[in-house]
């Protein structure tokens, strides 16, 4: 059952990434941040249950960064970027 939960979390993160890469969603959208948050939270929980410290660090940071992104979006969004870098 834990494997199924892991796959659901991974699919949420991968779906957000693929949607960004294919131009289907802008990473500044709330749906992007929430998909990353949901997937990262699930994968962090599984890593904690399994005692996988490297994955706890990776997915825990992914989740916290996603929460930060969602908060920024909900507060009015990040400043628009100009240029390529």
From TrEMBL:
Look up the domain of life of the source: Bacteria
Q: Which UniProt keywords apply?
A: Membrane, Transmembrane, Transmembrane helix
Q: Where is the CBU-0592-like domain?
A: 3-75
Is Membrane set as a keyword in this record? Answer: yes
What InterPro entries does this protein's entry cite? CBU_0592-like (IPR058058)
What Pfam family is a match for this entry?
A: CBU_0592
For this protein, the parts annotated as crossing the membrane are 53-74
- NCBIfam families given in the database record: CBU_0592_membra
Query: How is this protein named in the record?
Result: CBU-0592-like domain-containing protein
Its source organism is: uncultured Rubrobacteraceae bacterium
């Amino acid at each position: 059952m834990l494997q199924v939960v892991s796959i659901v979390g991974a699919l949420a993160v991968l779906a957000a990434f693929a949607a960004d890469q294919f131009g289907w969603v802008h990473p500044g959208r709330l749906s992007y941040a929430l998909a990353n948050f949901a997937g990262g939270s699930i994968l962090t929980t599984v890593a904690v249950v399994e005692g996988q410290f490297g994955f706890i660090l990776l997915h825990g940071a992914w989740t916290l960064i996603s929460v930060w992104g969602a908060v920024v979006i909900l507060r009015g969004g990040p400043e628009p970027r100009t240029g390529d870098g």
